[in-house]
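== Item description ==
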Amino acid sequence: AVEERSAPPASMLVLGASGTARAALAAAARWGLPGAAVAVREPARAAAAVEAGARLGVPVEVLTLGSDPARAAAAAADLIVSTLPAGAADGYVDMPMRPGQAVLDVVYVPWPTALADRAQAGGATVLTGAAMLLHQAADQVRLMTGHEPPVEAMRAALRSVVAPGVV
């Protein structure tokens, strides 16, 4: 989903430390990032993300959501990935965002999220969770069938169930 609309990043901030956050760290490893920052409400709950980063060769710096270091990481990141549930990032939308930056919010309903609106206002490229869902499904088709998936037909089907323009 990121590579469809943006160049691979050189730096990344992940909001949250869930399984989706660990998948974002796997993408960071694929892109060859030297590390990534993870911002969470409770730093002690980021242990699984730190462990995953270590296994992937991507050292993880744990930050507290809303803190000055997290805001600095947001300002510096080429890519911000919010893996937080709908509404959970709303209290942190004052993070600095800028042109040349990409922001992927894994939420796709309701859309747009407050984070997506803030990113758009800051000039960042906004990526939706629906795009991530599309590419996950395409990879699953590839893995299970060995065939190239009909991505544009899949995109059209996804658009028929989520708001047009979201994918």
